[in-house]
C-alpha cells in the first residue's frame, strides 16, 4: 500500500509538471501529461529495481519533473543491498543533474528579471538545492540499511544460539540416559555378585542336606546351620546395598505432595543432573565403602570348601592393600569364578591363585574336569557371570581371559593395575 500510494502521488506530480514542460517544449499538453504519468508511475517498482527508478528520475530532471521520485528512489537505493560504488555513482549523477538544472533555471530567472539578487546567489542556490535533494535521502537510506543488516545479523545469531542450546540440551539428555544405563548395569552387576554366590552355596548345601538327612543327622544339622548362615549373609549384603541406593541423594526420600498431579511422573520434575549424581554417589559408596576386600578371600574359599568343593588357595608376593575398587574387583572375580564352578563343575578340584606384583595384582581360578556331567543341585545360569567379570576388569584398565583348559577344565584369569 505504501508503494502504491507513493507511485500515485509521484504520477500526479509528474503529470502536473508535464504541463509546463509540454508548453516549453512545444508539444501537446496531453502528451506531456501522459509522459509525466508514465514516468512517475515507475516508482511502483522501487523495491525490486531501485537503480531503474533512480536512472529514470535523473533522465527527467532536465524537464523539472520527478522530485518525489528522485528523493524516494535515492533512499531506496541507499537502503538496498547493493555495492557502495553503485550507490555512490548514482547519487553523484543525481547530484550533478540537479545542480546543473538548478543553476540554469536560477540563471534564467535572474536574466529575465524575476530575481534581483547578486550573482553569488546562482551557485549558492544550485549547490543548496542539489545537496538538499540528494544528501538527506542517501544518508537516511544508508542508516536504515545498516540498521536492517544489524538486526538481521542479531536475529541470525539468536537463531544460531537457540539451535546450539537445543543441541546442548539433546546431548545432555543423551549423556544422562547413558549415565542411567551405566548405573543400571553397575547396580545389576552388584546385585548379581551379591546374590548369585550366596544362593548358589545355599542350594549346594540344601542338596547335600537332602542327601545326608537320614544317613548322617549330625552332618545334616551342620549343613542346615551353614544354609542359615549363608542366607543371613546374603540378606545382610542386600540390605546394605539397598540402604546405600536409597540414601544416594542428599536426604531421605520424600513422599509426593497432595498437589502433585498423578498424571505427571515424578522423574519429570527431577533434574537429570541430580539423578546422575545420586546414582553415581550410590554406586561409588557400594564400591568403596560397602564392598568386600582381598582379606576376605580366604573366608570365601572356606565357604566353598564347606560346601563340598575341593579348593586350594595359594598367594604369591608380598601381601599389601590396594584401592578399595581394585580389591573389590579382585574379590568379585574370584567369587564369580567359584560360583561358576559350583554351577557347571560340581565336585571338580579347584585352584585359586593370587599374585601380588610390583604394579599389579593377578588372580586365577582353575578347575579340573568335573566328575559328573551336571551338578546334582541343578543350579540355573543367567549367562552374565563372565560378562560382568570382564566389564569390571576392563573398567580398571586390566586384562581378563577365560576359557577351557587342555585337560578339559576351565580357567579364569585377570590382571588388574595396582593404581
Automatic annotation (TrEMBL):
The keyword Transcription regulation does not apply. Its EC number is 2.7.13.3. Residues 256-265 have a biased composition (Low complexity). CDD domains: HATPase_UhpB-NarQ-NarX-like. It holds the Pfam family HisKA_3. Residues 144-182 form a coiled coil. PANTHER family: NITRATE/NITRITE SENSOR PROTEIN NARX-RELATED (PTHR24421), NITRATE_NITRITE SENSOR PROTEIN NARQ (PTHR24421:SF10). The lineage of its organism: Bacteria, Bacillati, Actinomycetota, Actinomycetes, Kitasatosporales. It catalyses: ATP + protein L-histidine = ADP + protein N-phospho-L-histidine. This is histidine kinase. Keywords: ATP-binding, Coiled coil, Kinase, Membrane, Nucleotide-binding, Phosphoprotein, Transferase, Transmembrane, Transmembrane helix, Two-component regulatory system. GO terms for molecular function: kinase activity. Residues 183-248 form the Signal transduction histidine kinase subgroup 3 dimerisation and phosphoacceptor domain. The chain crosses the membrane at residues 25-45, 51-74, 86-104, 124-146. It comes from the Bacteria. Residues 245-265 are annotated as: Disordered. It comes from Streptomyces indiaensis.
Amino acid at each position: 500500500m505504501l508503494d502504491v500510494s507513493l507511485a500515485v502521488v509521484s504520477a500526479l506530480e509528474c503529470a502536473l509538471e508535464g504541463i509546463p514542460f509540454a508548453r516549453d517544449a512545444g508539444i501537446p499538453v496531453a502528451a506531456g501529461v501522459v509522459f509525466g504519468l508514465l514516468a512517475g508511475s515507475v516508482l511502483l517498482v522501487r523495491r525490486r529495481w531501485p537503480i531503474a527508478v533512480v536512472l529514470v528520475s535523473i533522465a527527467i530532471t532536465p524537464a523539472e519533473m520527478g522530485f518525489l521520485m528522485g528523493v524516494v528512489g535515492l533512499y531506496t537505493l541507499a537502503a538496498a543491498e547493493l555495492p557502495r560504488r553503485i550507490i555512490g555513482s548514482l547519487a553523484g549523477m543525481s547530484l550533478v543533474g540537479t545542480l546543473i538544472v538548478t543553476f540554469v533555471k536560477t540563471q534564467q530567472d535572474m536574466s529575465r528579471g524575476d530575481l534581483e539578487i547578486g550573482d553569488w546567489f546562482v551557485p549558492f542556490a544550485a549547490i543548496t538545492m542539489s545537496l538538499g535533494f540528494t544528501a538527506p535521502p542517501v544518508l537516511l537510506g544508508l542508516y536504515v540499511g545498516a540498521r536492517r543488516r544489524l538486526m538481521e545479523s542479531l536475529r541470525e545469531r539468536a537463531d544460531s544460539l537457540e539451535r546450539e542450546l537445543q543441541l546442548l540440551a539433546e546431548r545432555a539428555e543423551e549423556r544422562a540416559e547413558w549415565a542411567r544405563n551405566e548405573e543400571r548395569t553397575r547396580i545389576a552387576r552388584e546385585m548379581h555378585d551379591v546374590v548369585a554366590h550366596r544362593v548358589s552355596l545355599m542350594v549346594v548345601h540344601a542338596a547335600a542336606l537332602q542327601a545326608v538327612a537320614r544317613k548322617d543327622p549330625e552332618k545334616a544339622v551342620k549343613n542346615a546351620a551353614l544354609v542359615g548362615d549363608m542366607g543371613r549373609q546374603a540378606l545382610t549384603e542386600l540390605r546394605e546395598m539397598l540402604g546405600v541406593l536409597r540414601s544416594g541423594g542428599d536426604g531421605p526420600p520424600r513422599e509426593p505432595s497432595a498437589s502433585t498431579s498423578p498424571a505427571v511422573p515424578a522423574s519429570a520434575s527431577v533434574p537429570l543432573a541430580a539423578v546422575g549424581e545420586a546414582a553415581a554417589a550410590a554406586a561409588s559408596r557400594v564400591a568403596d565403602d560397602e564392598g568386600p576386600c582381598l582379606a576376605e578371600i580366604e573366608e570365601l574359599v572356606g565357604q566353598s570348601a564347606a560346601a563340598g568343593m575341593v579348593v586350594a588357595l595359594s598367594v604369591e608376593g608380598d601381601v599389601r592393600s590396594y584401592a578399595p575398587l581394585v580389591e573389590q574387583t579382585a574379590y568379585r572375580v574370584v567369587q564369580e569364578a567359584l560360583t561358576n564352578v559350583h554351577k557347571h563343575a560340581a565336585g571338580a578340584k579347584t585352584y585359586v591363585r593370587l599374585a601380588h606384583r610390583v604394579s599389579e595384582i593377578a588372580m586365577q581360578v582353575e578347575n579340573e574336569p568335573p566328575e559328573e556331567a551336571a551338578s546334582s543341585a541343578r543350579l540355573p545360569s543367567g549367562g552374565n557371570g563372565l560378562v560382568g567379570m570382564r566389564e569390571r576388569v576392563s573398567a580398571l584398565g586390566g586384562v581378563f581371559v577365560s576359557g577351557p583348559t587342555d585337560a578339559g577344565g576351565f580357567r579364569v584369569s585377570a590382571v588388574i593395575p595396582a593404581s
